[in-house]
User: Fold this.
Amino acid sequence: MTDSRLAGFYNLDLAQRQARLSAATGLDLGPIFGSNGLSAAQADAMIENAVGVFGLPLGIAANFVVNGKDVLVPMAIEEASVVAGASHMAKLVRESGGFRAEADPSHMIGQIQLVDLADPAAAERAVRGAEREILAAADAANPRLVELGGGSRGMELRRLEHPPLPPMLVVHLIYDTVDSMGANSVNTVLESVAPMIEAISGGRAHLRILSNLADRRLARASCAIPPHRLRSEKYGGEQVRDGIVEAWAFAAADPYRAATHNKGIMNGIDAVVIATGNDWRAVEAGAHAFAARSGRYAPLSRWSTDDQGQLVGELELPLALGTVGGATRSHPAAQACLALMQVGSARELAGIVAAVGLAQNLAALMALATEGIQRGHMGLHARQLAMSAGASGPQIEQIARRMVEEGVIALERAQELMQTNSGS
Assistant:
């Protein structure tokens, strides 16, 4: 098992980090270390009208321990401080026993919309009475997935109205997609059983599509941190703990704050989802719909204090992820990232991703409750400005450090410092 600690990893240069990671894992990580991890020819086979490949920085979040297992977490993201924040919080939680995580079975919801119903109530009774036959037909449509342990798990019916249109009946097919995200599998099965359901209901099957509100496929992560581990030179542990809980309470009370609170969570989650070749748009849609399930937009996480005075963090959200199929199979860098994480199933991956989201949330709340969010961002932002001004190699750190010391972090100042260096 790979040790995720990687002490001093941040202080190494790029080539040294690559060598350290290869030595620590014993894996061929060439697709990760390449310029894009994907050739133009491979991209041309994946999408229509391809003209090239768009790259994102790929970092490794260290220090994660999830359910007692060390995990190195790949994160594809352009925003400064996210990887550092996740790694720092993972170290803090690691010293307190690590993250605990779990995920539900991979049950997805496929929807069939029935319209033109002469008698919606009679149609509902007829479809309910034929549930066993419908589920058997759904399994027959994908026997390979059934052999792998997946397939139909149940059926639900919902009568919906949206005047002035007539009432509609919506059939929910609950389908276990095992280690795949499942969109293609579910949509194929829906197309197969739609004519049968039309005949039973006497209506017309209009839309036949997977739902991205995967609320039967939830992932959860939690952690508990004693207050003494939260203290710093300027702040006491209880002060930091209470500040984090108060910051969470703001999100719980106000949807304007909750939107930014959840965005911070998704900073961590999306980065891992992208790195592993999964559908981050589906994950985003499901997460925000789940956040509004009560009729009011709310935070996805919860922070509180337990009877021992520890800071307790909990996160729950839908995570429909796959370790097989789609880009996880066709994208070389995604395959390498999954190998790096050493995950054995889609459920294990979902638990780890939830832990990363909770870590990222903790990083943001701690910064807001203490020094403020900008301080952590500024050092990395200064490096980006130095590169934009044309700096390279050691110049990047020199110019960034100078701007931070001066408290003037701006492109114009970076350009001035570049001119000064060039003239010396």
In short: DSSP finds 17 helices and ten strands in the chain.
